């Protein structure tokens, strides 16, 4: 039996990019996937692309009420959560001089507070043997000018995962963080070509990652194949943060 058959997953930020690829991989493995996004048109398109194994929910990952509603909706289906993925995030450039309180608050509201509130809401509904996975970044250990605030949020998220690992272990819930390197997504396409080329030059494998490669690693960490792995950070970065 496949390692994720007849399971239920909630993918926050699953309407595009890496989140959508993870949702697709989970559905392919026999998991019922609830995925969220901020725009109804994107959520509907993602759910349609995956097919009958997907349920789309419009939600703002920075809104506590939306997070509670999404988790409650899964419960209303009479199901608990076997796999939780938090992929929601923003990445806006600003050097030190340009960084404003508003810039800081936007990033931490989605990338960190949203992750915290999602874990808090979902934890009571997670099954023993279940797993939570948070999307980090190589930026949590590398400088990321002019994305310093984004990098700081990922470092904070890594710290939270360590704490949640110990807190949830007695309930049999594993918590890990998956940290991609530069990956060919719409977010990465938004940065200037010169900056993209500079990023690729730092990757030993000399290319960006593909969303399917990140999704494969996510599936592994969420599945029973990783039943003795918790508190870990897995880099899918072509060696960028390793050498």
Automatic annotation (TrEMBL):
Pfam families in UniProt: adh_short_C2
Gene3D superfamilies on file: NAD(P)-binding Rossmann-like Domain
Residue intervals passing through the bilayer: none
SMART domains registered for this protein in UniProt: PKS_KR
Domain Ketoreductase: 7-181
Family affiliation: Belongs to the short-chain dehydrogenases/reductases (SDR) family.
PANTHER family: 3-OXOACYL-[ACYL-CARRIER-PROTEIN] REDUCTASE, CHLOROPLASTIC, SHORT-CHAIN DEHYDROGENASES/REDUCTASES FAMILY MEMBER
Name the UniProt record assigns to this protein: NAD(P)-dependent dehydrogenase (Short-subunit alcohol dehydrogenase family)
